[in-house]
Specification:
Layout: H1 2-18, E1 35-48, E2 63-75, E3 80-87, H2 89-98, E4 101-103, E5 106-113, E6 119-134, E7 150-165, E8 172-188, E9 195-211
Antiparallel strand pairs: 1-2, 1-9, 2-3, 3-5, 4-6, 5-6, 6-7, 7-8, 8-9
């Protein structure tokens, strides 16, 4: 049931992103020349009935979510580009401070909708993978409260809606967006056979350099 709901959510986002928007009449080129690199500051919250949240009390299903990631955009044509997101802050912090792994890279097919002004609209579906090693949500962080660790993974189905604040002729600009997502998680070689779902959303601040 969870997998079907996630797949339907992803397909709806894809149909919406591919549909014509307004009076956009820009003709696409055979190959895009957009190439952007940057970093992303992310903050939000999630419901999570599988993994321990280090910012919540034991037994709490979910909590706040935050990360800093690196990203690259590769242009396909005038309207579309591929967005590759690689989290760095949370995987390092969790490994060093909590003896855990939470690593959630993703790839998005994003569409740029030009408004003719200084702000473009960016939207599109996102597909990723969530990798986990650590205790479940009933566990404390240390000592006798900490439960057994286990491996889990699952696909992430999400989307993105953002505003790209253009600075024409300048190499740097800023983008602000939101990223809702759903991730079914499944234990791997797990004695307790953990299964559940993560549902959340993030506010993204993107600092980016490159050509558009």
């Amino acid at each position: 049931m969870i997998q079907k709901a996630g797949l339907m959510f992803f397909m709806l986002l894809l149909v919406f992103a591919l549909s014509p928007v307004g009076d956009c009449e820009a003709e696409t080129t055979a190959s895009g020349d957009e190439f952007v690199v940057g970093f992303k500051v992310r903050f939000g919250g999630r419901y999570d009935d599988v993994r321990m949240c280090v910012a919540s009390d034991p037994g709490t299903k979910g909590g706040i979510a935050a990360d800093i990631s690196l990203f690259m955009d590769f242009g396909i044509n005038e309207d579309w580009f591929i967005h590759v997101d690689l989290p760095v802050f949370r995987p390092i912090l969790f490994a060093v401070a909590f003896d855990m792994l939470q690593f959630e890279p993703s790839v998005g097919a994003h569409r740029r909708i030009s408004t003719g002004g200084d702000v473009d609209v960016i939207l599109g579906p996102t597909l990723g993978v969530s990798l986990h090693y650590g205790p479940d949500y009933r566990s404390g962080q240390s000592g006798s409260e900490r439960g057994p660790s286990f491996f889990a993974m699952g696909p992430t189905f999400g989307g993105y809606f953002g505003l790209d604040f253009l600075r024409r002729g300048k190499p740097f600009n800023f983008q602000l967006g939101v990223s809702p997502y759903v991730t079914p998680l499944f234990g791997i070689a797990d004695d307790e056979n953990h299964r559940g779902v993560v549902v959340g959303g993030l506010l993204d601040a993107l600092f980016q350099w490159g050509s558009k």
